[in-house]
Design goal:
- It contains 14 helices and 15 strands.
- It starts with 16 loop residues before the first strand and ends with a helix.
- Strand 13, helix 11 and strand 14 form a beta-alpha-beta unit.
- The chain folds into 2 domains: 180 residues, 3-Layer(aba) Sandwich (Rossmann fold); 158 residues, Rossmann fold (3-Layer(aba) Sandwich), CATH 3.40.50.
- Helices cover 37% and strands 16% of the residues.
- By secondary structure, the chain is of the alpha/beta class.
Length: 400
């Protein structure tokens, strides 16, 4: 795949306007500080290449879910200082992403200038395949560059419809190239065994297809977090009324295959709370004897030990999703332990590790071991989608 798709090295951007779709949907804390700038840092080589060529850059991105309503809360103007600092030049900003004011700003750009347009999702048309909106976004640019891996699984205007308007003047950036290379490496026969996939988080619906696909590929699949409980309910044939028919079918198929393979490892014990705000209302119990009205908030110590045994003998590891409600310190031990262990074994035994998803990256950062991982993916959902289909809609469109 990497030999066929055009990237920024296939173009000379001198005197050209590049419309660069980046994914600056970065996590921020309550004070507006960026808690993980991986996506911004990974996009810089693409921007610098265009600057070096003598091109003009128009950056477009979404941020949050403003649902088509402009607001100060979701403005991406806060990115200007960090971009200006990293690029060592004054990055310009425009209060909209389409319209006459945008046209005037673009018209005044000089070679080497960088202009960031306002949040694409201030327009409802961004989250559709809207031809008119796409034309307005694209009409002054010469070349389209997609460097937004984390959003390329979405059928949105800036990802799907805009590139169609550029015919053969479209390509991927270095961030996207890096993602494809590393995920293809993981999927290839070059992956050293044992291969372990660790999945957590709450949304089982977005990960069930990945489990179905990888039960024939991985040596171990460790499942933690909220998404592990439907599996446990199905095994014990308890509390299955809340599981929809489609999901039940998928879990049944996975468990049937697992009888022969025995590669799926589920939590044995769990940290519970009756009142999330009261530290006295916490206990650890077997996964099979959870009392009613107690909430499952982290994997327990026996589960951590079992997961560690598998991680210790792994030579390739992929991790996506927390083991519990890790943003509350009382329930962070499972997630933080996994983060630290993957980091340790990557360095100690020189294994190949990939971690993707905002929560997992945040846990690594909290443990001060984010730089020990072999590859940090800028997409959570996009990474899983790519692993499932070996491509994404935003990548496929660059070929056409």
């Amino acid at each position: 795949m990497m030999n066929k798709i055009k990237d920024v090295n296939d173009f000379n951007f001198k005197n050209k306007i590049a419309l660069v779709r980046v994914d600056f949907n970065v996590p921020i804390d309550n004070y507006g500080n960026i808690t993980d700038d991986t996506r911004i840092k990974y996009s810089i080589p693409t921007i610098k290449k265009i600057i070096y060529d003598g091109g003009k850059i128009v950056l477009i991105s979404h941020f949050g879910r403003p649902k088509g309503i402009p607001s100060k809360k979701y403005s991406i103007k806060f990115l200007i200082p960090i971009l200006s600092k990293i690029l060592k030049r004054s990055v310009q900003f425009c209060e909209n992403c389409i319209g006459k004011y945008v046209e005037e700003k673009i018209f005044k750009l000089k070679n080497g200038d960088v202009l960031l347009l306002e949040n694409l999702r201030f327009h409802k048309s961004e989250e559709k395949e809207d031809n008119k909106f796409s034309f307005e976004l694209s009409k002054y640019a010469d070349i389209y560059v997609n460097d937004a891996f984390g959003t390329s699984h979405r059928i949105h205007s800036s990802i799907i419809t805009v590139p169609k308007l550029f015919k053969n003047k479209k390509c991927i950036g270095f961030l996207m190239k890096k993602e494809i290379y590393n995920l293809d490496k993981f999927l290839s026969k070059r992956s050293k065994k044992p291969i372990t996939i660790i999945l957590g988080g709450a949304k089982i619906s977005s990960k069930i297809n990945v489990i179905e696909k990888f039960i024939d590929f991985a040596n171990y699949i460790l499942i933690g977090g909220k998404m592990s409980y439907p599996f446990i309910s199905m095994i014990n044939n308890k509390n299955t009324d809340d599981i929809n028919i489609k999901l039940k079918k998928s879990i049944t198929n996975i468990l049937y295959k697992n009888k022969k393979k025995n590669i799926i490892i589920l939590p044995e014990d769990v940290v519970l709370s009756k009142n999330i705000n009261n530290i006295n209302h916490i206990k650890i119990t077997s996964i099979n004897s959870i009392p009613k009205k107690w909430e499952k908030l982290d994997i327990g110590p026996n589960s951590i030990t079992n997961f560690f045994k598998i991680i210790n003998k792994s030579k390739t590891i992929l991790w996506n999703g927390p083991m519990g409600k890790f943003e509350i310190p009382k329930f962070s031990r499972g997630t933080m332990s996994i983060a630290k262990k993957i980091s340790e074994i990557t360095i100690k035994k020189n294994i190949y590790s990939i971690v993707g998803g905002g929560d997992s990256l945040y846990a690594l950062k909290q443990q001060k071991c984010i730089n020990n991982i072999s590859y940090l993916s800028t997409g959570g959902g996009a990474m899983l989608e790519y692993l499932k289909n070996k491509t994404l809609p935003g990548i496929k469109i660059i070929y056409s």
